Amino acid sequence: MNRTRRIGAIDIGTVTVRLLIADVTANSIEPVVRSTDITHLGEGLTQTGRLSDAAMARVAGVVGRYADQISTAGVDACTAIATSASRDATNGEDFLGLLAAEGIEPQIIDGDREARLAFLGATHGLTGRGLLVVDLGGGSTELVVGDVVECDGRREESIAAARSIDVGSKRVTEIILHGDPPTPSELDAARTWIADEIRPYFDALRQPPTAMFAVAGTATTLSAIKLGMAVYDPDRIHGSRLTRRDLAELLSMLAVLPLDERKHVVGLDPGRAPVIVAGALELETVLALAGLDSATTSEHDILHGILVDTWRRLEDEASQAD
User: Fold this and answer.
1) Which member of 31, 104, 129, 149 has the greatest number of CB atoms within 10 A?
2) Residue range 222-248: average pLDDT?
3) Judging by DSSP bridges, how do beta strands 241-243 and 16-24 pair with one another?
4) Chain centroid to CA 88: how far?
5) How far lies 142's CA from each of 24, 94, 150, 155, in Å?
6) Quick check: helix, strand or coil at residue 21?
């Protein structure tokens, strides 16, 4: 069977909450509704170990709106996930109860599953071997290397190494980058810490990756800044490239700006301005450790992975029922 199903996917991250409703088949994802809201769920988490009441309320308000959109769209199924901030917080279960009252019941997923969903989404429509998918989040970074091949008309994903590392733009900012703008010593300390945390992943790989795909808000934002994109255009972002030189130049420009000035950079959502310097440091570091000269920015990310995974589950259930 290869029926079209309308599926909703919600990703509740440390910095953003996102919704994608799409019509999904085995080979295609046709978006119907998209929404991205910067909520900073993880604000203060590194200091307190808890999600703040204010942050949880911001997310609940957004999720309530998403629940209405899902109901109106008439989906066959909806899968919602919560990632780094929710799994790190001591009151994560309380947060889930708050969201359930809004009509959405997310799953708090572990880092391994987060990484695999990111790979599934980023490689949708691609084939190749040694593909590295990097999902730079606010609380964690997911790194996945794997192969995608066509076999008897079916796509098969094979993951060689997947890891979620507790290095994210929000976490790095709150732990190290305290200056406004960050001081050179803070930038050096952040770069060293990021490299020390991420290098073991690459040291353990049997073979170096052949290509890198960067997903999520840090990568798409940096691409938008590079392109001078006053109005965000996902079609221009998807497939664009960020070279090592691009990242060095972007970092040099962003890191010397005070926050109030950084908020006015063309292509940068003001809500992401507080964490973009840390995000750029992470992406620059990962690209160097991967031994590659450039990364491809992808609009296909964990939301697409959720859609594909949910579609496959529904098809399996239908086959068993028949």
Assistant:
1) 104
2) 94
3) unpaired
4) 17
5) 25, 25, 25, 22
6) strand
